[in-house]
Write a structure and sequence with these properties.
By secondary structure, the chain is an alpha/beta fold. Helix 1 packs parallel to helix 3. The longest helix has 15 residues.
């Protein structure tokens, strides 16, 4: 059976709403089905893979950084990359370079590349299907 390639364009920034978690769950499920994944992170989503994200405590609840266990989107992406590698499928992640520059989030985790909307066009042209998850 030929591996299907799926493209996702995502636009939401980290930590702002539940769409981000749902997006990561969809990617995880697609990997479980053996799909090759291509992600184009546009607008605020260009910050999802920002390598300088830092966990923090919660003084209101009297929890330190370890007790709070605040998940970071860069760690979720790294976990999805590792899962893809273990399953023998591909997960390619491209951040929109214009969006990265606007937000000052140039430092990305390993395995994430800088690109342009032309990458989304290429991805969509190569894919079985494309899902665009826009903001409101």
């Amino acid at each position: 059976m030929e591996t299907k390639k799926l493209t996702f364009a995502f636009m939401d920034p980290p930590f702002e709403n539940e769409r981000t978690i749902t997006f990561f769950r969809i990617l995880d499920a697609a990997l479980d089905q053996g799909a090759d994944i291509q992600v184009f992170a546009y607008e605020g989503a260009a910050a999802l893979a920002f390598s300088l994200q830092k966990a923090h405590g919660n003084s209101v609840h009297h929890r330190d950084e370890v007790q709070e266990a605040h998940p970071l989107t860069k760690d979720w992406i790294a976990a999805l990359q590792n899962k893809a590698k273990q399953l023998g499928v591909n997960l390619e992640w491209v951040n929109c370079g214009l969006c990265v520059d606007e937000r000052g989030v140039n430092a990305s985790i390993p395995g994430c590349k800088r690109g342009s909307p032309a990458d989304l066009w290429r991805y969509a042209s190569e894919s079985f299907n494309t899902l665009v998850i826009g903001t409101r």
